Amino acid sequence: MKVLVDPESGCCNGVRMAIEKSEEFLKQSGSLYSLGAIVHNGAEIARLSQLGMETVGYEDLPSLSGKTILIRAHGEPPSTYKMIEEFGVKLIDCTCPVVLALQKKIAKKYSEIAPRGGKILIFGKIGHAEVNGLVGQVAGDACVISSLDDLKALIMSGEIDLDKELALFSQTTKDPAHYQEICDYLRGRIPAESLSIYNTICAQVSSRHKKLEKFASECSVLYFVCGKESSNGRVLYDSCKRVNPRSYKIEGVEDINLSDIDDNDIVGICGAASTTRWQLERVADFITRSKGDSSNY
Ligand code: SF4
Predict the structure, then answer these.
(1) Ligand 1 atom closest to the CA of 98, numbered from 1
(2) Hey, whose CA ends up nearest to atom 2 of ligand 1?
């Protein structure tokens, strides 16, 4: 048996920066509030809470006057910044620069096309924090779709008028192949001069699909480590499963069934944009020790 940890896996830059900033602050003050989970990863949240981080919601803001709150990499709508200011809460803004740039792009495009009756369309997970932050840039005046079927339904209902201008954006962590499907569908139905399509999937995510698929296909069994809530994890895991049917999505070592691993397997370990290196290494270590074999992770 051989155990390989995907060298490309580990937290994306946005999440890594947010975690580093929070650790730095916690070292000095011992207490920090995070507006929503800093990362969709229970094990990492548990580690940070040991250092003094507490996850809170919007309803907690009035009671946090004078305290410090962190906005995570997903970003927030302008209304959140207003509330934070109103309630006298101090802020550490960890919005990922890539998300920040996307928010600005949407706001700018909206100011151009909305007066002419144009619409902003966002391909993303409805209700996801990043998507809420994006929709907030245009005071909620955007359509969100999570599939091609959603788009067809909006066209059928008349909410999207194919005779008007349309600007399409994607949440940063969506599957590039699914986004392409939506782009192609619209290109065939809206004249080029009325359709603006923005490639806003994060480069770290879009390149990850191909690299992960290659890694998954080179292993005989694969463990994909991510939190249950990670939408990026779900999408990337599905890519792995497509090329390697012996792929398992796990949160940690407790989800591993060792009887799934044969003595001559090449065991691959990888993860989502929210999975830390220490979690991947812990899984590799557990499998190596439990199966009692050599490994070169
Ligand atoms: S996936 Fe990309 S855009 Fe999203 S937080 Fe990470 S680095 Fe930023």
Answers:
(1) 3
(2) 202
Ligand 1 centroid distance, CA of 244 (Å): 26
Active-site hit among 8, 23, 24, 130: 130
130 part of the active site: yes
CA of 118 to the centre of ligand 1 (A): 28
Give the residue range(s) of CATH 3.40.1010.20 domains in the chain.
2-10+204-291, 98-197
Please state which CATH class domain 98-197 belongs to.
Answer: alpha beta
| CB burial of residue 53 (10 Å; 0-12, 13-18, 19+) | buried
87: phi > 0 → left, psi -120 to 50 → alpha, else beta; which?
alpha
pLDDT tens, position by position, 167-204: 999 999 898 889 999 999 999 899 999 999 999 999 98
Q: Output the CA torsion sign for 8, 13, 15, 18.
A: positive
Note the pTM of the prediction, 2 decimals: 0.86
Lowest mean pLDDT among 12-16, 23-27, 60-64, 133-137: 12-16
Ligand 1 centroid – CA 173 distance (Å): 7
The CATH class, in words, for 13-95 is alpha beta
CATH 3.40.50.11270 domain locations along the chain: 13-95
Integer Cα distance of 223 and 267 in angstroms: 8
Instruction: Give the atom of ligand 1 at the shortest distance from the alpha carbon of 203.
Output: 2
